[in-house]
Amino acid sequence: MLEPLSPVKMEDALLPLTEIAFYHGVHQGFYFGFLTTFTAFLFPLALVGLGAWIYNFFETEMILHRRLLPFTCIFTSIWLAIFFEAWKRREKTLAFKFQTLEAGKTTTEAKDYTGRYQVSNVDRKVIQTNKFSSTWRRLIWELPTYLIFGAAAVILTLLLN
Fold this sequence. Notes:
By secondary structure, this protein is mainly alpha-helical. It has two domains: 1-104, no CATH class; 112-161. The chain contains five helices and two strands, in the order H-H-H-H-E-E-H. A two-stranded antiparallel sheet has the order 1-2. It is flat and about 70 Å long.
């Protein structure tokens, strides 16, 4: 569905991702695949931003700038949704090219792991448990982010009014 919209057409001719993945590893192949896809998708967004900057450079009053801000946010959100869907498709295509489509995720154990070990009641295997559940761990990292961005939004709102 998003294939005609994808600006990444000649990528394989310009960057041999399959050879990179087989020589340096699959992680690097996905890394360079993501970078090329993201860079190609940034170009239309950069053109819109450049046009807005040129308009604001010659505009002395900021009235229109305030009116266009919601449309800029909506355009960026739509762009992000289209990019995300295109990247999911591209990721599956790269996984097929790298012959890792059916491969499962591998977990790496941290050498300085500070969690607890428990014996599973089901199969009597030793499993690692964390000090914090995933909900608490997420809140520990997200709460300061929400506070910082919320404070920035309040400050910007007060400065623009």
